[in-house]
Specification:
This protein has a seven-stranded antiparallel sheet, with helices on both faces. Helix content is 36%, strand content 26%. The termini are far apart. It contains five helices and nine strands, in the order αββαβββαβββαβα. Helix 2 packs antiparallel against helix 5 (179-200). It is an alpha+beta fold. A hairpin with a 2-residue loop joins strand 6 (122-127) and strand 7 (130-135).
């Protein structure tokens, strides 16, 4: 009788342990599913966002994990009045946004507008006539890009090479990264917008190959 009781007790213990393991496994799976649903909004965006202008991986690198994310773009006007904007909203609050437009601006006027008078206020890179800079006195990664571009409707002889694609971008709120890494990521974002706008503007001589990426700030 004692042995039967011990056997029953052992079977009950095994059943209880098995039930505990099953419950724990279910809880882990539910927790993992909930975590995935709450933190992978960016991964569910298209591989290229904003009408194909920007790589999703760049957005993921820049913004924090979020339950949901929404991307969108706006293309207004044409030629010398063209403007293209892009935004990525997240349920975690931070926003990555930027705008690129055709403007009549020289490199010097562009730098004076965005770079500040003191060199210590910004970092700057150049490649094949393309310029980029980031303000180091801002915590939102404010970055700016300049690509020479004479719109198709403007006579090149009248433009004096002063027309360009000007792009600016920033993160509103806290990004996944900060400091120099954030400035670099936002500059890459602005450059991808500028390249897309360069194609939309049908810049004269637009058969030139723009670099896939700009030099890194740390290389300068």
């Amino acid at each position: 009788m004692a042995e039967d009781a011990r056997n029953k007790e052992w079977e009950a213990t095994k059943a209880s342990a098995k039930g505990f393991v099953i419950c724990l496994t279910v809880l882990c799976l539910v927790g993992a599913a909930a975590w995935f649903a709450l933190t992978t909004g960016l991964e569910r965006l298209p591989s290229k966002v904003c009408d194909g202008a920007v790589e999703r991986d760049l957005v993921i690198r820049t913004l924090p994990r979020t339950r949901t994310a929404e991307e969108g773009a706006s293309h207004r006007h044409e030629g010398k009045d063209l403007e293209f904007s892009c935004h990525i909203y997240t349920s975690a609050d931070p926003i990555l946004s930027g705008v690129a437009e055709v403007e009549d601006a020289s490199v010097d006027s562009w730098f004076n507008r965005y770079g500040g008078m003191a060199k210590r206020d910004s970092v700057r890179i150049s490649a094949d006539g393309i310029e980029a800079l980031a303000r180091i006195d801002r915590d939102s990664g404010n970055s700016y890009v300049y690509i020479p571009c004479v719109p198709h409707e403007v006579r090149a002889s009248d433009a004096s090479e002063s027309y360009a694609i000007l792009a600016e971008a920033s993160v509103i709120g806290e990004g996944r990264i900060s400091g120099a890494a954030l400035r670099q990521a936002v500059t890459d974002f602005a450059y991808q917008l500028a390249k897309h706008t360069y194609e939309l503007a049908q810049c004269q001589g637009s058969t030139r190959d723009l670099p896939a990426d700009l030099p890194r700030y740390e290389d300068e």
